[in-house]
């Protein structure tokens, strides 16, 4: 049976004899550490994972060692920098070439590794990203549960909407709803916008108050056993105008076109085009100003796949990706609808299932 480790080294094809994941401080820890150890908790700052085709070894402190108990990893605990360097040297000295995940490795972390290992170092980040892009059954299970939780929280949004409430207030209520539905916490700071601010895709919620006639956009997600969900729903507070309804239905039709185009072997850019062409065939041409979607897993933006006009890669069975078309009219408002799907043998399966009809509250 293929494991995460064996899959990685199949992709490396002799490029490296081992891969070393180095964590620096709390703000510079590599998600690949938890991917290869399968740890469900812990920070692991100042820790190292040495990954081979046959297994994973970890050098860490006594403080973090408890989070690895019961996992299929070999653990060495150290207390001083010298002990750390000696432990890493002991684990890596037999390898002629080691790979690193360069985008997440700080200069401090690289220097620490160099004090322990004198051989050749290569960048294995491309192969690591390809390995993580295809999810195994356990990962899909966790993401699916995270999506179920986020969907139930999304279905509660209409009952949360009250005239005069602020964007920040709705964002906080969403975060509470995630916890109440079983999440470990938000996967990112929720994006909540009212009225004209819905035309800003990466908006930060503020003190703007909700009033009748406003579109309401909520983009958020939760975590379950470290794995993320990412969902967006747009609602109408009050009675929608004909143009607001057309804007919503256009985006919904674009998402439907994308769902139909998603299948193993499809070009990621073609899936983006399927949605983009729907929007560009209406008065909202050019208003879809971002890519259609991104990979999802231990991180909200989990590397590949990337559904965008610039991508030349193809989708594979087992990938998990967001599908989030949007159309944004400056000084008027915007609509985005986002769901998470997993690639199946013949197409895709939606993991989020919150109500998707245009709801007037």
Task: Kindly describe this structure.
With 361 residues, the protein is an alpha+beta fold. The protein has two domains: 4-132, Creatinase/prolidase N-terminal domain (Creatine Amidinohydrolase, Chain A, domain 1), CATH 3.40.350; 137-350, Creatinase/methionine aminopeptidase superfamily (Creatine Amidinohydrolase), CATH 3.90.230.10. Helices cover 34% and strands 20% of the residues. It is built from eleven helices and 18 strands. It has helices spanning 4-12, 31-37, 62-65, 81-92, 107-116, 125-133, 137-155, 157-160, 167-181, 242-261, 268-280; strands at 18-22, 48-52, 55-60, 74-77, 97-100, 120-123, 191-194, 214-220, 223-224, 227-228, 231-237, 293-294, 306-307, 320-323, 326-329, 333-336, 339-343, 348-350. The strands form six sheets. Strands 4-3-2-1-5-6 form a six-stranded mixed beta sheet, with helices on both faces. It has a three-stranded antiparallel beta sheet with strand order 7-8-11, with helices on one face. A three-stranded antiparallel beta sheet has the order 14-17-18, with helices on one face. It starts with a helix and ends in an 11-residue tail after the last strand. The relative contact order is 0.12.
